[in-house]
Amino acid sequence: METVNVHEAKSHLSRLLERVANGAVVVIECGGKPIAKIVRFSAPAPTRMKRLGFLKGEMRVPDDFDRMDESNIEPMFEG
User: Fold this and answer.
1) What is the per-residue pLDDT across 6-18, written as a single tens digit (0 to 9) for each?
2) Is the pTM here over 0.70, yes or no?
3) For the chain, first and last CA: distance in Å?
């Protein structure tokens, strides 16, 4: 584990990131106290996207879905 101060981290960020990319861990100190740790980022494995229709057979849409409660809704639009 490498330790650097804030000024060195700002001056040599590209170099530090290259080391981190190769597996190193870098600790940044301010006033002799550790304040941050730079470690390599490991992205999670991509998950498989769900297909359309994955709920087929799980729900049922009523035959009168497009007319449900129309006697109450129609007066709201027509006055």
Assistant:
1) 999 999 999 999 9
2) no
3) 74
